[in-house]
């Protein structure tokens, strides 16, 4: 399989156990990635894992994440909101989503509650739930503690606090309070993903060609690569102040960009080399799936409509 890792990881935080599931390529072509995979779980479309729907928190990478394409670094999360019934959604950037793909997983599903404050370490063989022996509340201190435990292993870390989600590189993701607080209440304080492997590209030559062209067209002269970019994109294509929030009428388009793994704020700001017309070509080059524009927008509408249903109409369903 190209582009997608082909596997998802489900973790029982209470017992510290885990299991994996391989998904067929046709499933990914129905849901794409990111919020699509999360919605598939919460609407009971993942056979055998229906019991996790509505209670678990799921975090998934978009379809293009892990490729060298500029801005393709977005992960999405979904879980039961509190105190109001419904579903809370979140997304963020950085290298965490790419590392999840590199390690061989498209999505991690987190169920139940850990007995004590803990952190999760994910690698290509599975995961391990480790206790945090001493009480640590500061996000930076938690990340530092985990890095010390991991030693020389290269990893990306998301830290969950009652104020939201923070990366180990100091990125504070907006509108993440519900999901971050939920995981903190469940005694999961962080997830560290070790960098192992890479993403198989269907057409590496085309992907690299598009990536180079994007850099030449959009990189600001003199701006360094790294985390100085507006949304932690590895291309650092625009200044932080250029990032803006998508308008309400762009919700369907946002669902599509998130499923692809590109931050919709990057698109809305005009600070991206990509347009909707590029997605078919990019997805084909990364995954090998020769999709049409109609197929992609059908997926986007399906994700958006399911979001509305789960958030607004099925609040009581989460208490069953």
From TrEMBL:
Gene Ontology molecular functions: iron-sulfur cluster binding; oxidoreductase activity, acting on the aldehyde or oxo group of donors, iron-sulfur protein as acceptor
InterPro entries: Ald_Fedxn_OxRdtase_N (IPR013983), Ald_Fedxn_OxRdtase_N_sf (IPR036503), W-dependent_AOR (IPR051919)
Family annotation (SMART domains): AFOR_N
Domain Aldehyde ferredoxin oxidoreductase N-terminal intervals: 4-199
Annotated protein name in UniProt: Putative oxidoreductase
Species this chain originates from: Neomoorella humiferrea
Lineage: Bacteria, Bacillati, Bacillota, Clostridia, Neomoorellales
């Amino acid at each position: 399989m190209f582009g997608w890792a082909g596997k998802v990881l489900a973790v029982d935080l209470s017992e510290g156990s885990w299991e994996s599931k391989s998904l067929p390529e046709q499933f990914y072509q129905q849901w794409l990635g990111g919020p699509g995979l999360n919605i598939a779980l919460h609407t009971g479309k993942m056979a055998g894992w229906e019991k996790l729907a509505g209670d678990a928190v799921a975090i998934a990478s978009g379809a293009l994440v892990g490729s060298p394409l500029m801005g393709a670094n977005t992960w999405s999360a979904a879980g039961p909101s509190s105190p109001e019934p419904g579903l809370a959604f979140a997304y963020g950037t950085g290298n965490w989503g790419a590392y999840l793909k590199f390690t061989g997983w498209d999505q991690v599903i987190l169920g139940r509650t850990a007995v004590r404050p803990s952190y999760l370490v994910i690698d290509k063989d599975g995961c391990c739930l480790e206790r945090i022996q001493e009480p640590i509340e500061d996000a930076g201190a938690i990340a530092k503690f985990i890095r010390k435990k991991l030693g020389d292993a290269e990893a990306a870390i998301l830290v969950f606090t009652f104020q939201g989600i923070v990366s180990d590189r100091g990125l504070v993701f907006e509108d993440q309070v519900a999901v971050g607080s939920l995981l903190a209440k469940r005694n999961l304080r962080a997830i560290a993903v070790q960098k192992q492997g890479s993403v198989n590209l269907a057409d590496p030559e085309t992907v690299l060609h598009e990536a180079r062209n994007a850099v030449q067209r959009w990189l600001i002269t003199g701006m360094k690569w790294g985390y100085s970019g507006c949304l932690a994109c590895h291309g650092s294509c625009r200044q932080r102040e250029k990032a803006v929030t998508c308008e309400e009428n762009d919700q369907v388009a946002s669902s599509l960009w998130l499923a692809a793994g590109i931050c919709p704020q990057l698109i809305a700001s005009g600070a991206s080399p990509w347009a909707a017309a590029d997605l078919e070509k990019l997805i084909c080059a990364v995954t090998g799936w020769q999709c049409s524009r109609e197929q992609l927008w059908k997926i986007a509408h399906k994700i958006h409509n399911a979001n509305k249903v789960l958030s607004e109409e099925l609040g009581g369903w989460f208490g069953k």
